[in-house]
Design goal:
With about 130 residues, the chain is α+β, with helices and mostly antiparallel strands. About 30% of the residues lie in helices and about 30% in strands. It has a four-stranded antiparallel sheet. A hairpin with a 2-residue loop joins strand 3 and strand 4 (about 90-105). The protein is globular, with a radius of gyration of 19 Å. The relative contact order is 0.22.
Length: about 130
Amino acid sequence: MTTTEPRRGFWCECWTQDITEEERPTLRASLDAYSASQADRWVAVTLRTISPALDSDASDLAWAWLSQGRIATRQALLRAEPCTVTITQDQTRITWTIRPATFLPLAHRQGAELPACADDFKPHTPD
């Protein structure tokens, strides 16, 4: 969809962190969502997908959010409030964040003449 107007939505991220180490969290995934339902659905689908692999405590937390916490999350998002969902599996903390965002339109590349250096770009190949 091409638009020239800013569009309201939500910026969603999934972070993991080893809680036994003093390292910073690692960003695992991100998503631009254009509705509260799309944003909380992203978390819900992920939790349903990983729940069979979770220990009983983490699975209970996941299903508690899916059955009741999701409603509170959706209501907060509709009020344009940021939300966080966190579960811990063994030594790994998984945190999903959803924040209200305004997405700015980007320049459309079709029909535009790109600079000469654009043809010189070679993607890095893993060793």
